[in-house]
């Protein structure tokens, strides 16, 4: 049933004006009638288990003390929820729309009657929670290879519209980190570029696209991450605490430009990073709990007036440092407005309440953050349009037009790094092709697309860490084929994958090596004389790759990062902007 407009947030709180005045009036009116418990609830965003709002799930009882997602929302007066596949939230578009409507109904018929922020991580590329039939776009580094802010904006506009159609009104994207460290284990291709100015242009464009280009009810709140910049690290903050040694001038030059650009474009939210930057805050505190970073730099120096949300508080970088309740309070003291996914929601929620009641946090401080959250919900059109039309989902998600746009964009991203033997484009269609290397699904997809062009195609996936037997089998198989295409993923950090490519290249048979994630792989096997990179292993990326192999299109991508010589970070093997064509 279509629910749009059947319930709205508290009719007595509807403002008599619009725009900035309307948002302020509504937020203040709602804030005045909220209890402390309801206010504190607006500061929390978490997941809940179940495909429907009223679905009972044992993990909800174990983690939250209630049975259903709707009860989690009502018990904690949540400001927002986040969807993952592992919480059974993202089975298919109609299910997602139904879940969203059910959760909004739970929020609006309890407590202060404030609608929810409903979010997910739909960066695209390697981080895409909402899978097909939703349109899948190339990730950020692939978009960076197009050099086109218009392309980035278009991808974000379509992605945002599809999310909004299923009731997701906030996206944890775009990534604003500048990937200046090729050994970065957690950002990499999630970044647009190693160049701050290119990254800034692409981030600004995506903020415009996600947020509806002036039509707030058609888009989603963009959440720009991870402040003050997670690009120059070789530590994953999920499992450790990264330390970044940029001084303030380096930070302003290298890390700040994409965040400044996002703020100038009116980004609704910025997410903090669980990183230590000693020259920005000598206390050695992670940015998430650093007042110097979140208030002194983000609020006061950069002038950000939107909502600041933490990265997940379940990540080891911060959770091993403080208990759940203390971590939540410290993040609010630092200047955060919303707290994402505390490991123990009950402890964190009760801890914030206790901090207010004993005077450590003032209620005025809580009101500041709640007012920002309420204002954002009003400005994004969530208060006026909390529900979505479940009957319209199929007409709005994964449409033929959207899928064609995604393919057109992917066709602009494939980048040719080496073609030393002029092997490409293939002048004569090979009779037999071997597709091998990383990824069961990816080698299958590529083999199917090559086979559709006529060649007899064999698929032999060797895995992320091929053992000697798998390598020997691939080399032997290559001897019986006219062409071998070998795929790599993060081979720069994987010696067995490097050995596979090396052995194939030395076999004397024609070989095309393709980095389907990090372009840095291409610097690690000099013996391979034909290298392409797609930055992505999506279906659209594999179709684009196949078109380039057969000369149906020319490679159009240009490296958005510098690929250094291994062990020589200041020496370029493939410089920024490199990209062959034919």
List the helices and strands and how they pair.
Layout: H1 19-33, H2 36-42, E1 44-46, H3 58-64, H4 69-76, E2 80-82, H5 93-108, E3 117-120, E4 122-124, E5 127-128, H6 140-146, H7 149-165, E6 170-171, H8 196-210, E7 221-227, H9 248-264, E8 269-272, H10 291-301, E9 307-309, H11 316-319, H12 324-334, E10 339-340, H13 345-357, H14 363-379, H15 393-396, H16 400-410, E11 415-419, E12 432-437, H17 440-451, E13 456-461, H18 468-478, E14 483-488, H19 495-505, E15 511-515, E16 530-533, H20 539-549, E17 563-565, E18 568-574
Parallel strand pairs: 1-2, 1-10, 2-3, 3-6, 6-7, 7-8, 8-9, 12-13, 12-14, 14-15, 15-16
Antiparallel strand pairs: 4-5, 11-16, 17-18
Helix pairs in contact: 1-14, 2-14, 4-5, 7-8, 8-9, 12-13, 17-20, 18-19
Description:
With 582 residues, the protein is an alpha/beta fold. It is built from 20 helices and 18 strands. It has helices at residues 19-33, 36-42, 58-64, 69-76, 93-108, 140-146, 149-165, 196-210, 248-264, 291-301, 316-319, 324-334, 345-357, 363-379, 393-396, 400-410, 440-451, 468-478, 495-505, 539-549, and strands at residues 44-46, 80-82, 117-120, 122-124, 127-128, 170-171, 221-227, 269-272, 307-309, 339-340, 415-419, 432-437, 456-461, 483-488, 511-515, 530-533, 563-565, 568-574. It has an eight-stranded parallel β-sheet with strand order 9-8-7-6-3-2-1-10. Strands 11-16-15-14-12-13 form a six-stranded mixed β-sheet, with helices on both faces. Strands 4-5 form a two-stranded antiparallel ribbon. Strand 4 (122-124) and strand 5 (127-128) form a beta hairpin. Helix 8 packs parallel to helix 9, helix 12 (324-334) crosses helix 13 and helix 18 (468-478) runs parallel beside helix 19. It starts with 18 loop residues before the first helix and ends in an 8-residue tail after the last strand.
């Amino acid at each position: 049933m279509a629910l749009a407009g059947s319930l709205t947030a508290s009719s007595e709180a509807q403002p008599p004006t619009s725009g900035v005045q309307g948002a302020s009036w509504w937020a203040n009116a709602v804030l005045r009638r909220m209890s402390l418990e309801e206010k504190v609830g607006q500061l929390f965003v978490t997941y809940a288990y179940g495909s429907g709002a009223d679905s009972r799930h044992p993990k909800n009882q174990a983690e939250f003390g209630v049975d259903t997602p709707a009860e989690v929302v009502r018990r904690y007066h949540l400001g927002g929820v986040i969807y993952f596949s592992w919480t059974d939230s993202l089975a298919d578009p109609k299910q997602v729309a139904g879940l969203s409507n059910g959760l909004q109904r739970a929020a609006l018929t309890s407590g202060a009657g404030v609608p929810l922020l409903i979010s997910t991580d739909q960066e695209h590329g390697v981080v895409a929670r909402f899978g097909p039939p939703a349109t899948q776009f190339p990730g950020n580094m692939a978009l960076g290879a197009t050099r086109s802010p218009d392309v980035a904006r278009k991808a974000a506009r379509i992605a945002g519209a599809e999310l909004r159609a299923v009731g997701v009104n906030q996206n944890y994207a775009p990534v604003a980190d500048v990937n200046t460290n090729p050994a970065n284990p957690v950002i990499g291709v999630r970044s647009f570029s190693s160049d701050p100015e290119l990254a800034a242009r692409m981030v600004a464009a995506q903020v415009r696209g996600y947020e509806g280009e002036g039509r707030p009810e058609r888009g989603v709140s963009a959440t720009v991450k991870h402040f003050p910049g997670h690009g120059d690290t070789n530590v994953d903050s999920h499992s450790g605490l990264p330390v970044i040694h940029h001084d303030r001038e380096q930070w302003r030059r290298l890390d700040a430009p994409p965040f400044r650009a996002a703020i100038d474009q009116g980004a609704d939210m910025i997410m903090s990073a669980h990183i230590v930057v000693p020259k920005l805050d000598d206390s050695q505190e992670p940015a998430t709990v650093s007042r110097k970073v979140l208030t002194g730099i983000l609020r006061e120096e950069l002038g950000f007036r939107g909502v600041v949300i933490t990265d997940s508080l379940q990540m080891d970088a911060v959770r091993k440092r403080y208990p759940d309740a203390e971590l939540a309070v410290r993040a609010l003291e630092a200047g955060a407005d919303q707290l994402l996914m505390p490991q123990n929601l009950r402890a964190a929620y009760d801890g914030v309440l206790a901090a207010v009641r004993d005077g450590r946090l003032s209620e005025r401080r809580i009101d500041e953050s709640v007012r920002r959250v309420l204002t954002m919900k009003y400005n994004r059109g969530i208060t006026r349009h909390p529900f979505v039309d479940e009957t319209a989902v199929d007409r709005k998600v994964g449409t033929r037009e959207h899928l064609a746009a995604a393919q057109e964009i992917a066709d602009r991203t494939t980048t040719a790094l080496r073609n030393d033997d002029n092997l490409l484009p293939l002048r004569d269609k090979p009779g037999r092709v071997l597709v091998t290397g990383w990824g069961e699904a990816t080698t299958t997809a590529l083999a199917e697309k090559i086979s559709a062009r006529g060649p007899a195609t064999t698929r032999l996936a060797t895995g992320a860490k091929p053992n000697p037997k798998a390598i020997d089998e691939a080399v032997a198989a290559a001897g019986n084929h006219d062409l071998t295409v070998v795929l790599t993923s993060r081979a720069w950090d994987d010696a067995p994958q490097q050995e596979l490519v090396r052995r194939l290249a030395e076999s004397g048979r024609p070989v095309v090596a393709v980095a389907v994630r990090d372009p840095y792989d291409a610097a690690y096997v000099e013996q391979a004389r034909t290298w392409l990179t797609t930055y992505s292993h999506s279906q659209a990326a594999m179709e684009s790759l196949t078109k380039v192999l057969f000369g149906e299109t020319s490679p159009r991508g240009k490296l958005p990062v510098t690929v250094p010589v291994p062990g020589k970070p200041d020496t370029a093997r493939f410089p920024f902007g490199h990209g062959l064509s034919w």
